[in-house]
Sequence to fold (290 residues):
Amino acid sequence: MNDERMLIQVFIVLFLCINLLLITTFFSKEVFYTTMRYVLFAVTLMSDCLFLFLADVLLILNYSRYTIQMWLCLIMYIILLLYMFVTPVTLTAMTLERYVAICLPLRHADLCSPRSTLHGILIIYSLSSLPCIVFLSIFFASASSASYTQVRICTLEIFIIHTWQGHLTSAINQFYFLIMCITIVFSYVKIMRAAKAASGEDKNSTWRGLRTVGLHALQLLLCLIQLWCPFIEAAVFQINLILFIKVRFFNYITFILAPRCLSPLIYGLRDEMFYHALKRLALCGLRKKH
Fold:
């Protein structure tokens, strides 16, 4: 298990370095931070960086059996919960942006302007914060004031005081899952119809957009399955501790690391303009080094 943990740390450091390079590339050209799809891409990169850093800290604390006060653990989990939702909600917004660009091209400039992008980011964070508000409200209503200073191993399970808390959180997660899945399927079907009806250069552009939405769907599916992981882990925890550790490790690799490794692939390498800017930045860095 020590070798596996070391491998995770290598992957996370590598992922964070790649993301920081992509974020630097994003700020290198004005067209990126004035175009909605690139701005939303940067939002996912920053969200993924913060989420993975906090998730890794909690993973290390859990494996080392290190105890901290519950108020500090609560703050860490609230931030983690927020950014756990920010990425899938942003991916849904990116899918809608592709739908507007391909199916409603005449309205794209108005609906996806810099002002609309700012409003979109505010909506993304507002929607992502609703589960956090519910989680906090339930915990504050249920926990005693003395519990905040208790020193315990920081896991999600310590905040679930009543069984119905888990059921309510699960219902909220499944509601988000349903809405985002409907949005993805709707956009995919509409873009597919547009791709079949298009011709020439428009057809190639539309099929590229369709493949992008397909990758978003895969990434979003992995992110949404992650919303169910705490409840699967809580059920396994009641059965066997060793099995719980193995299941949590598998979930961490499959549903936390994997979907966040797809973001650089979708826009960092597949998008021609962003790829050339990234390549130019990397070559400039090598020249300065030499």
User: Anything to note?
Assistant: The chain has a mean pLDDT of 80. Residues 25 and 281 are 7 Å apart (CA to CA). DSSP finds nine helices and two strands in the chain. The first strand starts at residue 67 and ends at 69.
